[in-house]
Amino acid sequence: MPEFTTLEYENLNSAVYGALCDALIQGRFQPGDRLKIRDLAEQFGTSVTPIRDAILRLANDEAIIFRSPRDIRIPGLSESRYREIRSIRVRLEGLAAETAAQVATSADIEALERILRENEQAIEAGDRLKGTQLNQAFHFILPQIAGLPVLNGILRRLWLQMGPHISDAYIQGGRAMIDHHYPVVEALKRHDSAAASMAIVDDILLGGKPILERIERGEERQTRRA
Amino acid sequence: MPEFTTLEYENLNSAVYGALCDALIQGRFQPGDRLKIRDLAEQFGTSVTPIRDAILRLANDEAIIFRSPRDIRIPGLSESRYREIRSIRVRLEGLAAETAAQVATSADIEALERILRENEQAIEAGDRLKGTQLNQAFHFILPQIAGLPVLNGILRRLWLQMGPHISDAYIQGGRAMIDHHYPVVEALKRHDSAAASMAIVDDILLGGKPILERIERGEERQTRRA
DNA sequence: ACGTCAAAAAAGATGCATCAAGTATCCTAC
DNA sequence: GTAGGATACTTGATGCATCTTTTTTGACGT
Question: What's the gap in Å between the CA of A92 and the closest CA on chain B?
Answer without folding.
Answer: 7
